[in-house]
């Protein structure tokens, strides 16, 4: 008997992203103090905590809830966020380079210049909010959904995306240069605007209306000039 994933792909022509199914135990309030490099945080509630400038590189967050936390210049390089919910995060220059996010929901984030280069995202939903200058260069995304959010100049250069969906979200000045795409669904994006890489969308699905909107960008990237007969 065909698997559910296989049936879904056969019915729609494209594999659908698997969303996280979180069943968190009641979290214990965080007692305060600064993040520790390689720290181990299990089943904690971080509510309105200011982590600005702190170093939690290599830390592990498991079954955690972070809500209303400030992450300005917070270092979380190589951190692991697992089975967790992140709500209302805000900050500029957060370093999550080479981090792992698995079974995570990110809700109503307000972030700028966040570094996720080389990161691994699996079964992640980014819902609502606005992220400026998101750096996902060389990252690996599998079963990821961007839903109802605004991404300003996101950089996916050299990243690998598999079963990634953009639903009711806005992409402004996106860089898809050198990406590898498998079952990437752009059809339900509210707005698509590419700075680079529109010609390398093999493996993605767009709607007929989007094709017309992007025709000029496709032509420009292919080096084709579009000139009227009276030009």
UniProtKB/TrEMBL annotation:
This is Pentapeptide repeat-containing protein. The keyword Repeat applies. InterPro entries: 5peptide_repeat. Keywords: Repeat. Residues 1-34 are annotated as: Disordered.
